[in-house]
Design brief:
There is one protein chain. Helix content is 2%, strand content 40%. By secondary structure, the protein is mainly beta. It has four domains: 83 residues, Sandwich (Immunoglobulin-like); 198 residues, Jelly Rolls (Sandwich), CATH 2.60.120.200; 140 residues; 80 residues, Immunoglobulins (Immunoglobulin-like, Sandwich), CATH 2.60.40.10. Strands 13, 16, 20, 21, 22, 25, 26 and 28 form an eight-stranded antiparallel beta sheet that branches. Strands 19-18-17-24-14-27 form a six-stranded antiparallel beta sheet, with no helix packed on it. Strands 29-32-33-39-35-36 form a six-stranded antiparallel beta sheet, covered by helices on one side. Strand 30 and strand 31 form a beta hairpin.
């Protein structure tokens, strides 16, 4: 009969009481809450301490992130003490003897965490959690475009929180592919406090800006084309705002005020309805200083994988499989909001290098940093201005065919006043992957071209090489060089005069097909497969109406698909690459093979 009356102060009516009494060990209290308020009372007796360490996550995705530990123990904090031990030793550790220490942990390590607590009466408890936290850092810049952020309008954006710095100089750049014309004032990158950032306006995708002291109604005259990739940028200084679309500058001379950057949205103007982007955004860069036109143009097609960039404080590539969009330079990671997703990026961006040369007269212009010579004849019209040539150490997003110079292509941007140019020849040098068969037959090396920001597979053949020597390929006679853009080299390993070798997966005589054995038992026509390259369904037409089987091999010779042949083969689940398709009609001994390029 030793019950203690504990109802003092408890309201007679607590409302919809769905809440239970819960201990609050930090202050040695018991609590209950409802829609009518909070009630608490001291615990009837002190609990013995029971140590338990905690963090917000057991996996750290960025080794630059500071890890905050905390005490989740049963412990009255009055007069209490804490002792933390982390093994192996952290790179940096602050507060080993406080409730909530912080640590910087090394990539690739798994850490045991021990917390020892003692209450005000000297009672102790110790808890060790083996491998409590692991670091698998994924926040370094990546060499390829990888993924992009895809947003669909209202409610969709990427949120960057806790920036909290004042800027009177700031540069922002991004690649964007808007789906059609965007609503006016849709934010590309925009501050959540005082409006500051890039947006669309004018009812036609004109690039605009917001900034205190500036003019949101100012017309830059720069239009972002719909449904294609464009590089956009803004550079804010105390005396001007500069906007860029694909390296073309527009300047608003105006006295700008400093702005406190609190948090940013990528793809939205402060979350307002009707001011949200529908499209893809990639390679978002934020600098704490002003970038020059030369810098923006030179880095336009390059990831920040190795080149670095002074003043770059935040960088988002959206290449993660899931979760936050990691800041690849700093620690301000972004969360994806609403229906925002990642999708495969087709932006013309990769690791590489670039070089700018002023071309205002004929002659040989050697872009030695990227291994390209542009040659203008004595009477040829020249750009009359800056030309930037970038060498990207990657394959383009779309392949002309499977026989390509791997892991390198070039993008040349003409910033001169004359777009009606005429190039006499282009030479690419310091090339390492030219097959011997191509060196012996230069005409089998083909130069292909598409416009500078293109992402579709609409490469056009310009001409064959006139000379290959010492890792240098020259394209001159028969070429139609009247514009710059993207250049890639394709190798044609066939010879129209060659004898076809059956069943080896190679089209030796350039007829577009490998040779069928015993095809005369069926019909005089060969099987037909299309499209090639393929991204989703490969259509197959076989002669004779007989039952065929198919096998699809990857580059290592492993069978990845195989079954009775249907009108279409679903390749959506396959990785990008080169495969060998083999068709078999066993009853008449017919076998046919062809290389297939999958571009998923």
């Amino acid at each position: 009969n030793d019950w203690v009356d504990y109802h003092d102060g408890l309201p007679f009516l607590m409302g919809d009481v769905k809440h239970v009494l819960k201990p609050f060990y930090k202050d040695s209290k018991i609590r209950m809450s409802s829609v009518r308020g909070l009630w608490e009372a001291p615990l009837a007796q002190e609990s013995m301490p029971l140590a338990y360490p905690m963090t917000s996550t057991n996996i750290i995705s960025c080794s630059r992130d500071t890890v905050q530990f905390d005490c989740h123990s049963i412990l009255n904090h009055a007069g209490a003490s804490w002792t933390w031990t982390i093994s192996p030793e952290p790179l940096w550790f602050e507060g080993e003897d406080i409730r909530n220490p912080r640590a910087l942990l090394a990539d690739g390590e798994s850490y045991d965490v021990t917390l020892s607590v003692m209450d005000g009466q000297g009672n102790t408890s110790t808890k060790t959690i083996p491998s409590m936290i692991s670091v698998s850092s994924q926040c370094e810049p990546e060499r390829l475009a990888g993924n992009s952020l895809q947003v669909f309008g209202n409610g969709d954006w990427a949120q960057i929180n806790e920036l909290n710095f004042e800027a009177n100089e700031l540069s922002i750049s991004a690649w964007i592919k808007p789906n059609g014309i965007q609503p006016d004032y849709s934010g590309i990158v925009m501050n959540d406090g005082t409006p500051a950032g890039l947006n669309f306006r004018g009812g036609n995708n004109t690039l605009g800006y917001h900034w205190p002291g500036g003019a949101w109604w100012w017309d830059s005259g720069l239009v972002v084309p719909p449904d294609v990739w464009s590089h956009v940028a803004m550079v804010a200084s105390p005396t001007s705002m500069k906007l860029y679309v694909n390296g073309i500058e527009s300047v608003h001379e105006v006295n700008l005020d400093p702005v406190l950057l609190t948090s940013l949205k990528i793809g939205s103007y402060q979350g307002w309805g009707g001011r949200n982007v529908n499209g893809e955004i990639d390679e978002v860069c934020i600098w704490e200083d002003t970038k020059s036109t030369v810098e923006l143009r030179g880095r336009r097609h390059l990831t920040k994988y190795t080149i670095g960039s002074p003043g770059l404080i935040n960088y988002y590539q959206f290449n993660e499989a899931a979760g936050s969009a990691l800041d690849r330079i700093g620690i301000k990671h972004a969360s994806l909001v609403g229906n925002s997703v990642r999708t495969i990026s087709t932006a013309p961006v990769a690791q590489g290098g670039s070089q700018a040369i002023m071309i205002n007269q004929p002659g040989v212009h050697d872009f030695w940093a990227v291994g390209v010579d542009l040659v203008f004849g004595n009477s040829s019209p020249v750009p009359e201005g800056w030309v930037v040539v970038g060498k990207l150490l990657a394959d383009p997003d779309s392949l002309y065919n499977e026989f390509i110079l791997p892991e390198e292509y070039w993008i040349a941007n003409n910033y001169g006043s004359n777009s009606n140019i005429e190039i006499e020849s282009i030479e690419f040098y310091d090339l390492m992957n030219i097959p011997d068969s191509i060196v012996a037959n230069p005409s089998n090396a083909v130069l292909i071209h598409r416009i500078e920001n293109e992402h579709l597979n609409n490469w056009e053949v310009l001409c064959s090489a006139s000379q290959i020597e010492n890792g240098r390929i020259t394209f001159s006679s028969g070429c139609n060089f009247d514009q710059l853009g993207q250049f890639h080299i394709s190798f044609n390993p066939c010879d129209p005069d060659a004898v076809e070798i059956p069943d080896n997966g190679i089209d030796e005589d350039c007829d577009g097909e490998d040779l069928l054995t015993a095809v005369s038992n069926v019909t005089e026509s060969a099987p037909r497969v299309f499209p090639n390259p393929v991204s989703d369904y490969l259509s197959v037409e076989v002669p004779g109406g007989l039952d065929w089987n198919f096998v699809l091999y990857d580059a290592s010779g492993k069978i990845v698909l195989g079954n009775t042949l249907q009108a279409q083969i679903d390749v959506r689940g396959l990785s990008k690459g080169i495969y060998l398709l083999e068709l078999n009609q066993a009853s008449i001994g017919t076998k046919w093979r062809k290389r297939i390029v999958v571009i998923n």
